[in-house]
Amino acid sequence: MEIKTAVQDNVTIITPTGRVDTSTAKAFEDGVMSAVNSSNKIAIRFDEIDYISSAGLRVVLMAGKKLTSLKGILVLINMPEKIFSIFKMSGFDKILKICPSFEESKQFFN
Amino acid sequence: MTISASILVLDDEEDTEDLFLQAFRHQITDGTYKFSFARHMDEALNFFKSQVFDIFVTDISVDGVDSINLISQLRKEYPLMKSIVASAYGDMSTLRAVMRGGAHDFVIKPIDFTDFGDTLRKTVSVVEKLKDVEKANKKLSAISDELDVSAKLQKSILPGNVVKKGSIEIWADSISAAEVGGDFYDFFWLSETKLGIVMADVSGKNVSAAMFALIAKTLIKSFAKIYQSPAECFDNVNRTLCGENSTSMFVTAIYGIVDIEKNHLVYTNAGHPPVVVIRSNQKPEFLECDPGMALGIFEEVEFTDNTHEFAPGEMVLLYTDGVPEATNKDGEEYENDRFSDVLQQNATLSPNSITQTLVNSIKEFTKGAPQSDDITTLCLKYKQRITSNVT
């Protein structure tokens, strides 16, 4: 797994690639949390990952909680159906903001 | 980088200490080397009792005895320390014996300190490498200890494999991945006719997951004895887990009550894969219900009860995502289609046999790939009701 980070319109966009599972969750956590520590507007793109396990969901959740406590915003974008079904099964779609694209996530950041 | 090495020098000649202090005065001042000096064997042995040295420099003959035995003894006792032998007379046969006995290097007397400085530097770097290897080994063994502890902990919280009573028969099992996950199942009698069953999966691995699993399991069982409804039980488990969860760990779970008098299952789901019903000659049915939300995340969630009426001969399977998400060496997942097919083809087997067949099919599919997650299943067979003939 690799993590790409870019900044667009004051939002840090994190793009993990490959599989986010037990063996890569730590790297995912380090990447996401370091972004959270430097910016309070974060978008995570999911269209370049093949799979996310519960260890990865936990990282997303941690980032969401941390940002909420910092009055920041986390939006999950470009999520393929397969990844969305994993979020939905755990009930995470009810507490996390999920948007089809970065364009549409701007309503939350502005 | 300055490496600090402690060095013991054993030599009965009076001026040795002065020569060393003079030759290495810069390294002593900047802390690279720390020297201790002994003139007799017993003095040296006293040093070893109280200190750890990286390098031992000794004359080939001390107190009239050659140092072969001393060096080989020290090598056994202090495998991380290296010895350098100083020999005045170029006695090749003794030198060879000392080297064979485990000395790391030698130097000819009178010592050329420029040359000896090189020898010392090289020896220090060897000792440093040895120390790194030792550190890495310790870390590895700590990790394998941790894996061992979590594997034992995980196994110890499982209640056994089998329940048989009246019209029901249950078989449950959990196969741990190399890095133990946080899967667990449970069953416990709530009354003569009501059996609680649990299937759960904690996020994360190893000791932290095993500890969280133990807490979750204990809470579920405790609240199950207080609240009649599975949903109410999970409302309380969830609130309690949310209250003391700074690490954002969570657990997905299903808790159900099998009522052998009313012939139904009342269950609630907290973000867990759905219950599957297996009937002969039919496609297995993944029961639809409100998936709720994993426990330990959000205090305000409310859970709902769902009821499934048993039909004679059918089986109900609870499992963790280790089943559909088992991944083969090409990165493909086992997925619900294969899962469903195996269940359909073996719908008439016993709970034990169908579980075994499923696990074998997953193992066959993932052959050559490491098992990435625990595979945990609980299969309940509802047999034909035994009607009593007593009038």
Task: Describe the protein.
The complex is a heterodimer of chains A (110) and B (391). Chain A contains four helices and six strands. Chain A has 110 residues and is α/β, with parallel strands linked by helices. Chain A has a single domain (2-109), classed as Transcription Regulator spoIIAA (2-Layer Sandwich), CATH 3.30.750. In chain A, strands 1, 2, 3, 4, 5 and 6 form a six-stranded mixed β-sheet that branches. The longest helix of chain A has 16 residues, at 54-69. The mean pLDDT of chain A is 91. Chain B has 391 residues and is of the alpha+beta class. In chain B, helix 7 (206-226) crosses helix 8. Chain B is elongated. Chains A and B meet through helix 2 of A and strand 11 of B.
With helices defined by DSSP (H or I, 4 residues minimum), what is the helix count of chain A? 4
CATH class of the largest domain in chain B: Alpha Beta
Q: Which descriptor suits the 3D outline of chain B?
A: elongated
Cα separation of the termini of chain A: 31 Å
Q: Quote the average pLDDT of chain B.
A: 88
Which whole number gives the mean pLDDT of chain A?
91
String of helices and strands of chain A: EEHEEHEHEH
Class from helix and strand fractions of chain A: alpha/beta
What name does the CATH topology of the largest domain in chain B carry? Phosphatase 2c, domain 1
Give the amount of beta strand of chain B, in percent: 25-35%
Find the biggest chain interface. A-B, 22 and 29 residues
Strand order of the largest sheet of chain B: 8-9-18-17-14-15
Radius of gyration of chain B: 34 Å
Class of chain A in CATH?
Alpha Beta
Number of domains of chain B: 2
Major sheet characteristics of chain B: 6 strands, antiparallel
What's this entry about, in short?
With 110 residues, chain A is α/β, with parallel strands linked by helices. Chain A has helices at 25-38, 54-69, 81-89, 102-109; strands spanning 2-8, 11-20, 41-45, 49-52, 73-77, 97-99.
